[in-house]
Design brief:
Elements: E1 6-11, H1 15-25, E2 31-34, E3 46-47, E4 56-57, H2 64-67, H3 70-73, E5 84-85, E6 89-94, E7 100-103, H4 107-112, H5 118-139, H6 149-159, H7 163-166, H8 173-183, H9 196-208, E8 213-214, H10 219-231, E9 235-237, E10 251-256, H11 260-267, H12 273-280, E11 287-295, E12 309-314, H13 318-329, E13 339-342, E14 357-365, H14 374-384, E15 392-398, H15 400-406, E16 443-445, H16 459-473
Parallel strand pairs: 1-2, 1-10, 2-9, 6-12, 10-16
Antiparallel strand pairs: 3-4, 5-8, 6-7, 11-14, 11-15, 12-13, 13-14
Helix pairs in contact: 1-10, 1-16, 5-6, 5-9, 8-9, 8-13
Bound molecules: flavin-adenine dinucleotide.
């Protein structure tokens, strides 16, 4: 490698950039990780957004995919300061009448909150949990011939269904509502094919691992990954926003933790016409409107289980959630949006001054929408927690355009690096032998715009680095 400054360069330090850099560095290569911002982390940063002493997760807050990530689990991250906290209840889903369905580590406890649907839930989820170890590698990676095709097909029969179809298994509003909230993490109309996949994966992760929050916030995951990376010899340069390949030191491989739109700008001139055409056709999904609060007391949820849950899904019934997701995807702004809310300070006293609290929430909005949803989101919280507004000390909001300014990977506020619908589930960003390879030798894409998609798990970066190791370094 005498002719190169580095063996490999990774641009972008989100979970996938960090995972790629670590995977390359673990092979003894010389690796430089470049980040445009002054701090590393991408979607894993924790900042005093509102008042001094109140530490808010700017993006990711709840981490079922991090704790269940095969790659992160292979790293000694506790030795680098990462400690996961397990909320008493993973997620609660309140209804207007004051009841709530709950997602808990125990399948039986979850089923108990679903009334007459208890046995139906167990019959659906138990076989999937049992088979998960056999199929998780197939699901958390690029499209390939599966190790266990029949077991995977068993999962696929459920996962490929529109969430609204799978919901027909249930009779109660509790089970239907809880299910709709889980499936709505797919950020698309719940009538779309395969919207059951993400709901099932997140439910399985809850039962096998938990919807954990990191002590100190998601920045702790970033710090642990970065510190491990540098401990094995990796180098990090921050405050270096890459706009052209010419700015980079020389290397044999460059991996980009960016989405297709940015990749085209940085390296488009190196790509074949076909690949450029494919990247130009890549589709982004709905955006989010994000809000953080500093509170002088916990959120006064009517339902007691909601006061013990790390995550609360505010959307009431299946019908309401289906309608709000359909409207946002059509460019409308629903009056009662599905709100995802986390209350980390209930379980982690590092997040706020003594006796005070933080809360984090977002709802889906049309891509690129600059509407201010503060009023509407707070109304949804107030609906299930009367008196909430009186507890607000300060708030901070991001509309989609501020979110994209903060992190250029959130195109139009899309937090998944592109819609994860059936056409872009396994073949993101383009239908190719390897989705991580670009058409230019030595250039790779490793962000959540590649399989298995959005979330903090690092599996996109891991698989992209594995591809580069084989192609470029024969490793
Ligand atoms: C509001 C919100 C809530 C979320 N909640 C959760 C959650 O609870 N749980 C969960 O698992 N996931 C959550 N996510 C999603 C998660 O954060 C992302 O899926 C994940 O961070 C994607 O990782 P990535 O490595 O692909 O990209 P990113 O994390 O976006 O990192 C990309 C990095 O590359 C840098 N970069 C981009 N372009 C350049 C350039 N040209 N030069 C140099 N640097 C560049 C950026 O500054 C950024 O640091 C949330 C996201 C948001 C926004």
């Amino acid at each position: 490698m005498a002719n190169h400054d580095y063996d490999a360069i990774v641009v972008g330090s989100g979970p996938n950039g960090l995972a790629a850099a670590i995977t390359l560095q673990q092979q003894g290569l010389s690796v430089l990780l470049i980040e445009g911002e002054n701090t590393i982390g991408g979607g894993m940063r924790t900042i005093e957004l509102t008042l001094p002493g109140f530490h808010h997760d700017v993006c990711s807050a709840v981490h079922p995919m991090a704790v269940s990530s095969p790659f992160f689990s292979s790293l000694p991250l506790e030795q680098f300061g990462l400690k996961f906290i397990y909320p008493d209840i993973d997620a609660a889903h309140p209804f207007d009448n004051g009841t709530a369905a709950t997602l808990q580590k125990s399948v039986d406890a979850t089923a108990l909150s679903l009334g007459r649907d208890a046995e139906t839930y167990k019959a659906l989820i138990n076989p999937l949990i049992e088979k998960w170890p056999l199929i998780s590698n197939d699901i958390l990676g690029p499209l390939h011939f599966p190790e266990h095709p029949f077991t995977l097909a068993g999962f696929g029969i459920h996962a490929l269904q529109p969430a609204t179809l799978l919901a027909k298994k249930f009779k109660t509003k509790e089970a239907k509502g809880l299910w709709a909230g889980m499936a709505a993490h797919s950020i698309q109309p719940l009538t779309n094919i395969a919207t059951s996949a993400i709901g099932l994966v997140l439910s399985i992760a809850a039962h096998l691992h938990g919807w954990v929050i990191p002590q100190g916030g998601s920045q702790s995951i970033a710090n642990a990954l970065a510190n491990y990376f540098t401990s094995i010899g990796g180098k990090i340069e921050t405050g270096f926003y890459v706009t052209s390949l010419n700015q980079l030191p020389s290397s044999k491989a460059v991996l980009f933790d960016v989405t297709p739109k940015q990749l085209l700008k940085i390296a488009g001139h190196e790509f074949s016409s076909l690949y450029k055409w494919q990247l130009n056709k890549y589709r982004y999904g709905m955006g989010v409107f994000k809000i953080d609060w500093a509170l002088d007391a916990p959120i006064p949820f009517v339902n007691e289980d909601c006061r013990k849950a790390g995550t609360v899904h505010l959307g009431n019934t299946l019908e309401e959630i289906v309608q709000s997701e359909a409207q946002s995807s059509k460019g409308l702004n629903p009056g009662k949006p599905f709100v995802l809310l986390a209350q980390p300070s209930l379980f982690d006293n590092t997040r706020a001054p003594e006796g005070k609290h933080t809360a984090w929430a977002y709802c889906h909005v049309p891509n690129g929408s600059t509407i201010d949803k503060t009023e509407i989101i707070e109304k949804q919280v107030e609906r299930f927690a009367p008196g909430f507004r009186e507890r607000i000390l300060a708030r901070h909001t991001f509309n989609t355009s501020r979110l994209e300014d903060y992190n250029p990977n959130y195109i139009g506020g899309d937090i998944n690096g592109g819609i994860i619908d059936i056409r872009q589930l396994f073949t993101r960003p383009a239908l190719r032998f390897s989705p991580y390879r670009t058409s230019a030798k030595g250039l790779y894409i490793c962000s959540s715009s590649t399989p298995p998609g959005g979330g903090v798990h690092g599996m996109c970066g891991y698989h992209a680095a594995k591809r580069a190791l084989k192609d470029v370094f024969d490793l």
